[in-house]
Design a protein that fits this description.
Mean pLDDT: 96
Largest sheet: 6 strands, antiparallel
Number of helices: 3
Structural class: alpha+beta
Length: about 200
């Protein structure tokens, strides 16, 4: 694909874009170990947004697979999940990291986080989200055991793995290259990297 069409999600930062109904978005795990928190908002009414809670109910599953549609907090389709070259592990359980999460992990000073990245990415489009919804944590590997416990594990992806999504309404899509560097969700070396996306 031509490099000039790629939009960079900088390491530890966020990026948002407007997407028209029917357009596709290709999200690429460029280096193979980066989790990308993903949100989508109805362009005409930001109080309607992609909901992990309602998507889990709609799918009857905690793991969206290619061929399904993710829905909003009004239970309407917002993103169709068309393609996936990764092993298909994309978390819907964990909320986006924030200052409080890093404080609990023992980080006293400010730490980049997905919550702030969402708000900054939206501000770049002169938009203000009504709240921070739970993100779809694309490429994030959170195995759930039979007893209901879960662990934070490195992604199972390889460099260049991607997902393709289609907007089911005019929307604003936002991404955060998760800055988590305390637990190994961005690989065993705990080193966040940039990711990329392309609007097709």
């Amino acid at each position: 694909m031509p490099a000039e069409n790629l939009i960079t999600i900088p390491a530890r930062k966020g990026k948002a874009a407007r997407v028209k109904k029917g357009q596709r978005v290709k999200l690429i795990n460029t280096h193979g170990s980066q989790v990308v928190d993903t949100w989508a908002f109805n362009s005409d009414d930001l109080t309607e947004f992609m909901s992990m809670e309602y998507t889990r109910v709609a799918l009857g599953s905690i793991l969206p697979k290619a061929g399904v549609t993710l829905v909003t907090n009004r239970r309407r389709p917002i993103l169709a999940f068309l393609e996936d070259t990764s092993p298909g592990i994309h978390d819907t359980l964990c909320g986006p990291c924030d200052r409080y999460r890093y404080e609990q992990l023992g980080i006293a000073e400010y730490h980049d986080n997905c919550t702030d990245n969402l708000w900054q990415a939206m501000r770049e489009l002169d938009l203000t989200p009504p709240q921070t919804p739970a993100a779809w944590n694309v490429f994030m590997n959170i195995p759930v055991a039979a007893d209901g416990t879960f662990t934070f594990e490195p992604p199972l992806t390889k460099p260049g793995d991607y997902v393709v999504l289609r907007a089911e309404m005019d929307c604003v899509i936002a991404f955060s290259a998760c800055p988590q560097d305390v637990v190994p969700i961005n690989g065993p070396d705990c080193k966040p990297t940039e990711a990329h996306f392309e609007i097709l």
